[in-house]
Design brief:
single chain; mainly alpha; 2 domains; about 80% helix; elongated
Amino acid sequence: MTKIVGTLNAIFRIACGFTILAWSTAYMVRRPYHRGFQWFAFLGGMKIAEGITRFCPLTALGHYFYDNRRDDHDQNELFSEAKAALYTDE
């Protein structure tokens, strides 16, 4: 697993993750039957884990689609050049 997230970004993710986790835990103590804050606790935990491991699945997905789009663009250029070479009268 490669490190996609930089050091400053990782520190920011950990700080925000702990803030979201503390906020959602405080609200879960006040309203124990309200399940909406469990999602915020889960998201805060995810941000902490992303900061510690320095790997973000959404960023990796974005890199994957960007690289594939660029490869498709390169292949389309090659295809259009080959097609143009076929139809020219040289």
